[in-house]
Design a protein that fits this description.
Number of domains: 2
Strand order of the largest sheet: 1-6-5-3-4-2
CATH architecture of the largest domain: 3-Layer(aba) Sandwich
Low-confidence stretches: none
Number of helices: 4
InterPro entries: DUF3105
Transmembrane segments: 28-49
Distance between the termini: 108 Å
Structural class: alpha/beta
Biased composition (Basic and acidic residues): 60-85
Region (Disordered): 60-94
Radius of gyration: 33 Å
Organism: Streptomyces chengmaiensis
Helix content: 40-55%
Largest sheet: 6 strands, mixed
Strand content: 5-15%
Length: 213
């Protein structure tokens, strides 16, 4: 009897030890897998952050790069006085200078008739991009640009029938003329100059002004 009891206890002890060994192996395996997963997540996170940093650097570099055929005027030469009389601007459309005390609304406003340049220049002072078009612009291009302006705060659009180019984009001290709305420089101009570094009064409102739409 004692022999059988001893054998039974021995088997139970053997089974207990085997179970403990399995539990240890399971814990070790779990820790190993967890370590691999954590390392993978950390590695992916580092990779993702690196990729995002590279994208940001590329965007910043592109924003700083000059736009082909863009015209620039020294901001120091553009007066900013408020005047109540018409201004004879040296360029058409104007990109700065003395202007009306009241701005054109430029919260994605599309005007179907010409607007006073003096009011539009005040909008440029607030950081707006002013899209203008003449008789050379196609109806399709006008529609495409109007859709873009309508969804872009700090922008406005109006016809300037006697301007030289088909489509002109103006910001304070900056101007670009293109033949069509599909020109990739259009998006670059918006990205660079809507509330861009050229803005004399960045953050000033684009609503509550003149609305002739």
């Amino acid at each position: 009897m004692n022999s059988r009891s001893s054998d039974r206890r021995a088997r139970v002890e053997q089974m207990r030890r085997a179970e403990q060994a399995r539990e240890r192996r399971s814990r070790i395996l779990t820790l190993a897998v967890s370590g691999v997963v954590v390392a993978g997540l950390v590695g992916f996170g580092v990779f993702a952050l690196s990729q995002e940093a590279e994208k940001k650097e590329r965007r910043e570099a592109q924003a700083k790069a000059p736009i082909a055929d863009e015209k620039s005027w020294d901001a120091q030469t553009l007066d900013r006085n408020h005047v109540e009389t018409p201004v004879d601007y040296p360029m058409k459309p104007p990109v700065g200078g003395d202007h009306s005390p009241v701005w054109m609304n430029c919260d994605g406003d599309v005007y179907r008739e010409p607007v006073p340049a003096e009011n539009a220049v005040h909008s440029l002072e607030h950081g707006a991009v002013w899209v203008t078009y003449g008789g050379k612009a196609s109806d399709a291009d006008v529609a495409t640009l109007a859709a873009k302006v309508k969804k872009t705060p700090y922008s406005l659009m109006s016809p300037v029938p006697d301007q030289t180019g088909a489509i002109t984009l103006s910001a304070w001290g900056k101007q670009l003329t293109v033949d069509g709305a599909d020109d990739p420089r259009v998006d670059r101009f918006f990205t660079k100059y809507v509330q861009g570094p050229q803005t004399p009064e960045r953050g000033a409102v684009c609503t509550g002004g003149v609305d002739r739409g």
